[in-house]
Each structure stands twice: as C-alpha cells, then as structure tokens.
Amino acid sequence: MDTIIDGKKMQYAVVGSGSWATALVKLLSTTQDKLYWFVRDDNNIQFIRQYGRNRSYLRSAALNVDKIIMSDDINEVVDAADVIIFCIPSTFFLSQIKSLTTSIEGKYIISAIKGFVSKDNLTIAEFFHNVYHISYDKIAVISGPTHAEEVSMERLSYITISSKYEDIARKLSDAFTCHYVKTIAGTDIYGVEYSAAMKNVYAVAVGLCHSLGYGDNFLAVLVTGAYNEMVEFLTLSHPDKSRIPSRSAYLGDLLVTCYSQFSRNRTFGGMIGKGYSVVSAHTEMNMVAEGYYATKCIYEIKRKYHIDLPIVDAMYSILYEEKNPDFVIKQLSDVLQ
Questions:
Q1: Is the pLDDT of residue 13 over 90?
Q2: Half-sphere exposure of residue 123, counting CA atoms within 13 Å on the CB side?
Q3: Domains and CATH numbers, the chain
Q4: ∠ at Cα 65 (61, 69), nearest 5°?
Q5: Quick one: CA torsion of 6, 182, 49, 72, rounded to 10 degrees?
Q6: Which residue from 23, 140, 309, 326 puts its CA 20 to 30 A from 112's CA?
Q7: CB contact set of 306 (below 8 Å; sequence gap of 6+)
Q8: Helix axes 189-211 and 264-273, enclosed angle (nearest 10)
C-alpha cells in the first residue's frame, strides 16, 4: 500500500543485507511498486539479480528483483528515497554509516536495529537525533516478535511501528501491512527500542541456563523475572503513560526471543553455557548475537539510573568478568521469585 505523507508518495529504502533486512526487502517488495536496497557487496548484488536470492542470508526467500533497485553505494540509495530503514547489526552500524555523506534532512528514518551504538550507549533513534540532529518527528522504530525466518516464510507476524505521532506511525505502517503481516501503530519510541535490546540479553540468559541443565520450571521464573526487570527499567528511566508492556512489542518480543528455535541470542547463550568462549561462539554462529553487546550497554545505563537488574548483573559478570556460570546462576536463583 502506498504511503502518502503531506500529499507525497513515499519511496522506501533498506540499508543492510542481513537476515532481517532481507526479510523486510521481501515484505516491502510485495507492498511497494519500487524499493531501493543498499547491499555493500557487489558480488552479492549480482547473485541476487541472477537468482532472486540473498546468497548469504535467508537463501530460501524469493525476492522480486523486478521491483528492487540495488546499489553498493549507500549515498545513492539514501538519496533516492524518502523513508530510510536502517537494518544493520548495531556492531557494524558506525563502520557502515561513516560512508553516508548525502543529506538525510527531511527524510523519515526508521530503525530496525535492536541494539546500541557508540561509546555513549545510544539507541539508533537517539543516535540520529543527537548526532545527525534529526527531529523525533522524523524518526520511527520497527519492533515486535518477528523472527526474520518466519517473516520470510510468510508466517503470520505482527510488527509494531512507533513514532512520535500516531498518525505518522499509522501511515508508515501501511507499507509493512500485507496478508502475512499485521501492523500496530504506537508512540513509545523509547520503550520499544530499549525493550527490543533488553530482550536479547534475557534470551542469552535463557540459552545459557538451558545448557546448564535448568528445566522449563526455572526458565519460566527466569523469563518472568526478565519481564519484571524490563518493565522496572522502562518505568524508572523513561515513564510513558501510553506504554502497555504486556503488548507484543514488549512481552511478545521477549517471549519469542527467549523460546524460539530461530533465536540467535538464545543459541549464543547456549554455547556459552556449554563452555564456548564469546569469540568462538560468535565465530561458529557466523552471526551477531546482539545480546552480548547489549548486556554491557544496559549494565552501564542502569547504573546511571541506579536501577537494580539482577539478571543483567548476572549476565554481565559471566560475559564480561568471566565469572563461573554455574556459580552466578545459582546466586541468581536465590533472588528470583
């Protein structure tokens, strides 16, 4: 469905070529007449053009290449579009964004990145607002319990689009609505973005505990504790009367990331529980587990607000202080309820 804002039809672009970016490209090429896509590897561009598949991620997902205009020049893609969806793992975001020299003033920026950037532990929305001076009027966030694999397989999914104004969020949502994706418009940019990063930390914890031999009973208590921590953090750091944490962008995203077979963060935690080092786990996965990096960011942010988050503390001590996982989780189990 066309997105019309201020009487103008919006042209969309996706920046990034990983799993989630590929799933969004498949989705948007269904709803849009034309879509711009930044793929940094020209060899991959040629492969996609020839076979209609991303050779590195979600290779089974068929892409409508007749609608997709690809380039390995980020400025060419950004300059051509009105709505730019950034979908790069947060770890690589700064290294790829440094090539962006064309103006993004007046464009709508949508973050589909679930993590933090820069030494200041900024979310993507905060980064574009603080560094590029983009008004929050022009910034939106995509989140929800949406594994890329299931979206690419056209399994029914729910995406939340949050923007400062609900009417803008609704208009932007139109581009993501199709027979297998339902969209929800909201205004809680902060809460949606932070919960999307925090749930990755908790999924690492679930994977680790599962590998250590803890069963479903304990994991249920752990996830309950994770939800309570997340709500506590959001309430104390940035209260919002419109926020309903039990909705899919918060609780739903937490549940699917903690329990799904597709959860790379749960997989990463499972490998740490089996004795893998952080480096070896990332190497074997060949994918980024955002929860590892988010653990340090949330740990530092919550200290600034003096918020007690025992599960985050436990994961920080395991992942960054190399404490014994068995001992740390045993201590954690004594404070969970």
A1: yes
A2: 24
A3: 4-187 (3.40.50.720), 191-333 (1.10.1040.10)
A4: 125
A5: 50
A6: 309
A7: none
A8: 40
pTM: 0.94
pLDDT of residue 118: 79
- Over residues 248-297, the pLDDT tens digits come to 999 999 999 999 989 999 999 999 999 999 999 988 987 788 999 999 99
Distance CA 303, CA 313 (A): 10
* Phi/psi at 137 (5° precision): -60, -25
pLDDT in tens, 296-333: 999 999 999 999 999 999 999 999 999 999 999 999 99
Give the phi and the psi of residue 253 in degrees, each rounded to 5: -65, -35
Q: Dig out the tokens for 92 from the structure.
A: 């690589």
Q: Mean per-residue pLDDT for 103-110?
A: 96
Kindly give, in sequence order, each residue whose CB lies less than 8 Å from that of residue 128, ignoring residues fewer than 6 positions away.
104, 109, 111, 134, 139
SS (H, E, C) the chain: CCCEECCEECCEEEECCCHHHHHHHHHHHHHCCCEEEECCCHHHHHHHHHHCCCCCCCCCCCCCCCCEEEECCHHHHHHHCCEEEECCCHHHHHHHHCCCCCCCCCCEEEECCCCEECCCCEEHHHHHHHCCCCCHHHEEEEECCCCHHHHHCCCCEEEEEEECCHHHHHHHHHHHCECCEEEEEECCHHHHHHHHHHHHHHHHHHHHHHHCCCCHHHHHHHHHHHHHHHHHHHHHHCCCCCCCCCCHHHHHHHHHHHHCCCCHHHHHHHHHHCCCCHHHHHHHHCCCCHHHHHHHHHHHHHHHHCCCCHHHHHHHHHHCCCCCHHHHHHHHHCCCC
Q: What is the percent of the chain with per-residue pLDDT over 70, rounded to a whole number?
A: 100
| Confidence (pLDDT) at 84 | 98
How far is Cα 211 from Cα 65, in angstroms, rounded to an integer?
41
